[in-house]
Each structure stands twice: as C-alpha cells, then as structure tokens.
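Office hours follow-up: a student asked to see two folded examples consecutively, so here they are.
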Amino acid sequence: MATVSVIVEKIELPGIGTRHDVLTQSGRRIGVVSHRTGEREIALFDIDDPDASSDSIELTDGEASALADVLGASVMLGQLVGIREQAAGLATEQLVLPATSPYAGARLGDTRARTRTGTSIVAIVHNADVIPSPRPDTPLLAGDTVIAIGTRAGLDALSRLLTVGPG
C-alpha cells in the first residue's frame, strides 16, 4: 500500500484565531478557520488563484463535530501533530501599505501576492476593523496594515511588492 502525503499549513490569524489549509492532490486548497470565539468555518480557494477564496461555510458545533467524524478525526489529528515541525522557518509580519503603493486603491487579488512571493496574507487591518482571511476582492487602502505569513525572503519580497509593485 502506498503512503499518502498530505500538506497542511497552519496560519496564525492575529486577534482572530488559526487557519489550517489542506492542499489536495488535485491542487485545491481547503481552509478551516478556528476563531478565538469558538466559531468555525471552511474556506474553499480558487484553483487558478490560491489567494482567492471562492466560498466559505460557517459551521455550528454539531456540524463541525459531524464533519470531523465523517472525515475520520483520529486520522486527521495524527497528521496535524507534525504541523509545528512543518512551520519551522515561517514568520508573521505586519506591513503598512504606503500611500505611494501601486496597490493603494486596488483589490488584494491584484497583488497576486501568494503567487509572486510565496507568502499568505491572512488579515488586513483597516482603521479599527480587522478583515480576517481577506478575499481577492477586498480593497487595499493606503495606511492599511497587511498581516502576512511566510519565509523571511518571501516577506521581504511582499514588502517590496506592496511598496513598488512587481518587477
């Protein structure tokens, strides 16, 4: 019997909770967001743009429990034990979008940040509002704080991208 490898990415969402992304063999990304309030939701990402969430479903406690049972919670928990080891080398950073950014006034999806830099934008803070798991159509405004996770090199590339654009 062949061993099946599953890629699971853990993303801390400051002030919100945690998102675990499962990358399927077909290239799809499925995220499970666990809010600090106890709420849970499943996010489905666009196959052509891994930064684009195509849909999300909020789950009640009973629905989450039933789904975990159907998927085989014990198997999933065994695979999640190694997440801490997989996260070695990742960092979280808060970047302020400058007024001179080519993306000030644009949409998050226009940045193609994950594709271009390998980083994940996990939240955007606009004034006092926190936008967790922002969608590609989320507007970016000068002064917004972009919260991202990635390698040091990826976060540096994201900073350059948001400041001067691709190039």
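And the second, which I mentioned at the end of office hours:
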Amino acid sequence: MKQEFPKHDPAIRTIAMPADTNPSGDIFGGWLMAQMDLAAGNTAARIARGRSATIAVDGIHFLQPVHVGDEVTLFAELESVGRTSMKIKVEAWRRARDGDETEKVTEALFTFVALDQMGRPRPVPGI
C-alpha cells in the first residue's frame, strides 16, 4: 500500500551524508531518530512558546532504509496537548537525490514537556 506524502509544510529537510552511515553503508537509525527529535522539538518549542524537552519516544518503526545522498523530509504534527506535555507525531520520508519518488521511512510519537527557566515542567500556554 503506497502512502501519501503529507501536504503540510515540513519541519526539517536535510541530506543524508556519508558520515551518517553504518559499516554497511546505510544511514544509522540513530541519525534518523535524532533528525526526528529535532523536528518534534522545533514544533514543541513553537507550541510551548519556549523551552521543552523530550521525555519519551513511542512506536518508532523503521520501514525502509535511507541511503547516502537521499533527501530526508521530516513532518511533525501535534497529536495532543496535556497540562505540561505535548505529543507530536513525526514522519520521515526519503527521496533519492536523482529522482522524484518519495517513500515513508519511519514514524514515531514524541512526547515533550514544556519547561520554565529553571528546567521544571510548566503549563503549555493556552491550557
């Protein structure tokens, strides 16, 4: 079943580079997860109107490999907001450098907590 590329703006778009590979030449899952955390963190900071921190990552599934030179596009979307927390769904998609076809390579649900200047949980604005 072919999945549809999201229609909203991406949170991050980057290129997978040789330094990001494992010994087999595939991009490290950890590198991809870090990019996803950056995308979710960018969204969390905007929603929280300030500092926030990752406290959990649920359901990460690596569906396809990412190769050197692939353009990786990350989409982040708010799923829910609690008093101090936010759940953000992130999808990562790849496009070969010389092609137009895209495919989803992974997805996960990130939980962030809004933090005050002392690093303690604070209410998310508007909640």
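Two things to take away from it. The two ends are 38 Å apart (CA to CA). The first strand starts at residue 12 and ends at 15.
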